[in-house]
């Protein structure tokens, strides 16, 4: 009777086991590095040469010869370089897969007949997974139809001292964000995210350029933080012996540019907010802000929709994007516009308006278990709206007309008292962008700043400070203006379906 043995369960190695294995491999690879350096005239050619004679890229060779039939030869010689991601050494014929930065691969075949005894022995002795390698030879197709280079010459372009992770196993999220270089080597989605981000930002700039907007840069170190309700990071300038703040928004400087006559202006740059970090928030993030003189919150909403739809087309070829999990999300058409007070009233079953007493809002919040840190009318309306309405939004939606006491930089509504001409754009259930009819009256703006200062004195760490320099600029006259702000990282979340730490190439981690 034959004996049946149950297969043993494979377990992931511990961090200590991985570190031990890496240390042992590093010693072996350091010895190979030394041999490469000492024998720089051998086919290995050194461990870190200043350059190698590349004539083609792996993607270009694949594009040109990707349709070769099995066992075909081309008579064309190329020299390419890439990272070794697969290696198999047999007797007289060795194989390696070289990977380019975009993830494309080509097979290198090293035979005794083509390179000779010494070169083949050096290959087996010195080449490891993870090494950057240059190979030259004829482009062929193997008997299995794999595009290959029959190597006649090779050289180590950069010796890897640590082994690659298992390319057939998924890296943990913690490893992906802490060691993004390994993530980029091993995971197609990581490389795709970088490409999509670049394509998205290029699309945004093109859309603005086509509409005669100018891109400018504003200070990141500021003597006074403003332009948003957020907690700032602070630092100290030795040169000026003063406290400075990392900017929370570029708004007040971009508006100065509009005062100065730059009627259509935008900036894509970094903002810093000393607040929590979660799946939709990062303390450091990329931000787009734009201002259009003689526009309002309706025209800037139209522009924002166009910006996002053009970005979708840039990465997906249409307004329908495919998220990382395979879900298709349609960003096309004209997006819904709903009123904050109207949608909240419909959700609770009775009218809530700017005149609704604070006590009534507090009673409703207590009944629903909605906590509001700062007890003012606008805070209760916004928190209750998120509780009742936000979760039901599926399509991209502009939520219009916010409470006046939570929007100190926004023009009052032209026909409805107690609200301002502000919208928030919700996509995928999170806030993606915000837009205003900008407040340009310096007298009212001063009153709003004073109200914010009172809130700050009462303990609100997100309240704005009174900015005399900005008020002085407004006193020279700012035309009617529409403005918008949008997180670039969140835009990538909407286009890719990923979390914020996946859309930022090098996110902040403890």
From TrEMBL:
<keyword id="KW-0460">Magnesium</keyword>
<keyword id="KW-0067">ATP-binding</keyword>
<dbReference type="GO" id="GO:0004824">
    <property type="term" value="F:lysine-tRNA ligase activity"/>
</dbReference>
<dbReference type="InterPro" id="IPR045864">
    <property type="entry name" value="aa-tRNA-synth_II/BPL/LPL"/>
</dbReference>
<dbReference type="InterPro" id="IPR012340">
    <property type="entry name" value="NA-bd_OB-fold"/>
</dbReference>
<comment type="similarity">
    <text>Belongs to the class-II aminoacyl-tRNA synthetase family.</text>
</comment>
<keyword id="KW-0963">Cytoplasm</keyword>
<keyword id="KW-0547">Nucleotide-binding</keyword>
<dbReference type="Pfam" id="PF00152">
    <property type="entry name" value="tRNA-synt_2"/>
</dbReference>
<keyword id="KW-0436">Ligase</keyword>
<dbReference type="Pfam" id="PF01336">
    <property type="entry name" value="tRNA_anti-codon"/>
</dbReference>
<feature type="binding site">
    <location>
        <position position="431"/>
    </location>
    <ligand>
        <name>Mg(2+) 2</name>
    </ligand>
</feature>
<keyword id="KW-0479">Metal-binding</keyword>
<dbReference type="InterPro" id="IPR044136">
    <property type="entry name" value="Lys-tRNA-ligase_II_N"/>
</dbReference>
<keyword id="KW-0648">Protein biosynthesis</keyword>
<feature type="region of interest" description="Disordered">
    <location>
        <begin position="1"/>
        <end position="25"/>
    </location>
</feature>
<feature type="compositionally biased region" description="Low complexity">
    <location>
        <begin position="1"/>
        <end position="17"/>
    </location>
</feature>
<dbReference type="InterPro" id="IPR004364">
    <property type="entry name" value="Aa-tRNA-synt_II"/>
</dbReference>
<dbReference type="GO" id="GO:0000049">
    <property type="term" value="F:tRNA binding"/>
</dbReference>
<feature type="binding site">
    <location>
        <position position="431"/>
    </location>
    <ligand>
        <name>Mg(2+) 1</name>
    </ligand>
</feature>
<dbReference type="InterPro" id="IPR004365">
    <property type="entry name" value="NA-bd_OB_tRNA"/>
</dbReference>
<dbReference type="GO" id="GO:0006430">
    <property type="term" value="P:lysyl-tRNA aminoacylation"/>
</dbReference>
<dbReference type="GO" id="GO:0005829">
    <property type="term" value="C:cytosol"/>
</dbReference>
<feature type="binding site">
    <location>
        <position position="424"/>
    </location>
    <ligand>
        <name>Mg(2+) 1</name>
    </ligand>
</feature>
<dbReference type="InterPro" id="IPR006195">
    <property type="entry name" value="aa-tRNA-synth_II"/>
</dbReference>
<keyword id="KW-0030">Aminoacyl-tRNA synthetase</keyword>
<comment type="subunit">
    <text>Homodimer.</text>
</comment>
<feature type="domain" description="Aminoacyl-transfer RNA synthetases class-II family profile">
    <location>
        <begin position="202"/>
        <end position="507"/>
    </location>
</feature>
<dbReference type="InterPro" id="IPR018149">
    <property type="entry name" value="Lys-tRNA-synth_II_C"/>
</dbReference>
<dbReference type="GO" id="GO:0000287">
    <property type="term" value="F:magnesium ion binding"/>
</dbReference>
<protein>
    <recommendedName>
        <fullName>Lysine--tRNA ligase</fullName>
        <ecNumber>6.1.1.6</ecNumber>
    </recommendedName>
</protein>
<dbReference type="InterPro" id="IPR002313">
    <property type="entry name" value="Lys-tRNA-ligase_II"/>
</dbReference>
<dbReference type="GO" id="GO:0005524">
    <property type="term" value="F:ATP binding"/>
</dbReference>
